[in-house]
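Worked example

This section walks through a single chain of length 140. The input is the sequence exactly as stored; nothing has been trimmed or padded.
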Amino acid sequence: MAEQSSGAFDACVIALYRASREQPADSFQPFALDLAGPLAPFDFAVWSRAALEDGVVRLYGACELRMPEGSLAAQRQMADRDVLGAAAFANLGRTINASPAAAFTDDPVVIAELLERFDLGHFLTTCLVDPFTSLVSSIT
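Given that input, the structure is written out below as tokens.
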């Protein structure tokens, strides 16, 4: 089993290297997320680029894959209540496990208008800093 997993991981990495040369830039992120899905199954994902400016997270771009319609717009409207994002930014390079998500916050608005409304139950998120640009890449 371990050899099979290792082989699948190796094949994924090789495919990602190839895709970085062959895929158009605007389609690389969804391609990479789809490719990684069988290795680490997920229902939906968001891969974003952001920066911390004057203590506020400024989102520069986000690639969403299979997110419930309207959920990112709802999240953006309550970005100041985003405890998961704040925790990820405070722990750069470490994966934050919000499972169940409702136990990660006591904010009734976030619970009712985001988590329950869009049936969002469990999250893993990791933020990494690009040493050259200081931009933060996040995969949730």
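What to look for: The beta strands are 45-53, 56-65, 95-98, 123-129, 136-139.
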